Amino acid sequence: MADAKPRSAHLLVVDDDADHLALLERWLALEGFSVTAVPSGEKALAVLESKRPDLVITDLVMGGIDGLRLLREIHRQDPVLPVIIVSGQAGIPEAVKATHLGASAFLTKPIQREGFIAEVEQVLADQVGKDAHEVRDFAPKIIRRSQLLAELLDRARLVARVDTTVLITGETGTGKELLAEAIHAASGRCEAPFVAINCSALPEELLESELFGHEKGAFTGAMARHDGLFQAANGGTLFLDEIGDMPLSLQAKLLRVLQDFKVRPVGSTKAFPVDVRIISATHHNLEQLVEQGDFREDLFYRLSVVPLHMPSLRERREDIAPLASHFLERVAARTARPPKRFAPDALRQLLHADLPGNVRQLQNVVEQCSVLSPSDVISAAFTTQALHNRPSNIPTLDEAKQSFERRYLISVLRAAEGNITTAARMAGRNRTEFYKLIGRYELDPTQFRRRKTSKKDHAADDETPPLMGQHMD
Amino acid sequence: MTTQAVIPIDPDIIDLAEEFLRKRRESLPRLLRLTAEDDMGELRRMGHEIKGTAGSYGFQELSCAGAALEEAAAAEDAGRVRDAVDRMAAFLQQVALVAR
Q1: Which of A103, A215, B54, B86 is the 20 to 30 Å CA partner of A329?
Q2: Nearest to B59, CA basis, from A110, A285, A308
């Protein structure tokens, strides 16, 4: 026998003809694959309970559970596991049915060794591209298997090249910002910044100065000129998340920017030209907000030149399994340990779970399970617990505290124009503590030094900064 | 009927091929009995299996005989079934393997 270099791929081969099974097993073993060979669909399912192969090769016609039923069962548990069907008939209907059911390949006996191995390698190679989470050219961060999402992404890819405003609708946690980033990355603006802001996270005055910038002295605490996000995103894309929560007064101002592409900072008499593509997103029904008078109709039409709808996770349950394995691998990468996996009943539970918080909730659940499960195979007990733990949209207290603390530090740094002594005094901390705090959030004080500060400006140090502690969302 | 007495076989699987032929020879009496009993359903199934597996091992003649058996049994043609079984028996008696 020829020496074979061992390969990492593990293959499950199913055939009720012992001689044919032995032949396929031998051919694969000669290529260095690790092979489990079983004589029935029932045995195959039993093996799958305990070990996930990288590929299943099954005969079509078998007593008991036949190849097509096995294919369905496998994909119910693990929709991304590739399956090659081997048939004694060259029957077109079986091949079509198998392909329709998601078989990766359909081979007809007699099988030729070279062609068979080539097919196996091809399917495994395709998996590297796919299974490493369906990496494709467009939107590589968005994991998709469902047709629904594939169609949306096709549309988004086309839209990316056209420099038009895009409105992304969809429930919380569906990945609207990921889509916006992907559109930016595939656009002619990809070299320029992608700047994102959540319009619901800031109070009106702060949102206004964040977006449009402000002149020095425009309001209490405006100790320096601030350019604003429109200017920061100049040449690139500005992503306005939760646009439906933008106050009406700012909607008017935003509309003016979209009409003449000039930004007038708060307190300024001059308007500056900007070249920015706007992508906005909302979980609200904007048309309904328009009807209620809470959203400007003219702005709605400006923003939604191309509407894209991110489907909820329950509309694309096929994506749950690949998403779950992606999140497991992410945890594994963070902890430098091999990824855990879900027991079939735990995965089944995830596949059927009510996930109102969508992908974000799934991520939380998967990460929680991965961290808490002492075993490499996560049992249903952990998924049950994680799924019923808490509503997904509410951050944990730690998350909320951190989010507040970061925003607070930014506003203090901005008010102090990046002067640590001043900022630390405002925050009631000593310099060392303050350095530690901003280090924790990777904030760079020099970024807040917009202009040289004159001694006179420090008189403002004693004033209470206007942005403190008011804007917990 | 002419058969190729000596068949060159991939040396990597020659042991499996020998084992396959041994089992086919052992199953000949059963094939003959099924033929005598006119058990067309089982003959068809066996013909189908031999057709596919013999073909994958590289036994073209045996694969063709299996196909003939499957077809004849499906057509419930006892005469052609016997011909197909004879063809298999002749092949199995004459065949010898050499490493390719």
Answers
A1: A103
A2: A110
Of A2, A26, A109, the CB nearest to B52: A109
CA distance B58 to chain A (A): 8
Angstroms from B37 CA to nearest CA on chain A? 23
pLDDT at A164 over 90: no
The encoded tokens of residue B62 equal: 């045996």
Q: How many CB pairs under 8 A join A and B?
A: 48
With a threshold of 0.90, tell me whether the complex ipTM lies above it: yes
Contacts of B23 in chain A (CB under 8 A): 19
Say yes or no: do domains A10-127 and A313-393 share a fold.
no
Is the pTM of the predicted complex or chain greater than 0.90? no
Residue with tokens 């109102």: A356
Compute the half-sphere exposure of residue A404: CA atoms within 13 Å on the CB side of its CA. Answer: 13
pLDDT in tens, A427-444: 988 888 899 999 888 888
A22/B49 CB distance under 8 A: no
For residue A2, the chain B residues in CB contact (below 8 A) are 12
Q: What would the two tokens of residue A207 be? A: 């949102």
Q: Which CATH superfamily groups domain A147-309? A: P-loop containing nucleotide triphosphate hydrolases (3.40.50.300)
The whole-number average pLDDT for the span A174-191 is 92
For B13, the closest of A26, A109, A110 (CB atoms) is A26
The secondary element (H helix, E strand) that includes residue A306 is: strand A306-309
Please tell me the CATH code under which domain A313-393 is placed. 1.10.8.60
Task: Please tell me if residue A23 touches chain B, with a CB cutoff of 8 Å.
Answer: yes
Residues A313-371: pLDDT tens digits? 999 998 999 999 999 999 998 888 889 999 999 999 999 888 989 999 999 999 999 98
- Distance between CA atoms of residues A89 and A282, nearest Å: 53
Subunit contact B49:A88, Cβ cutoff 8 A: yes
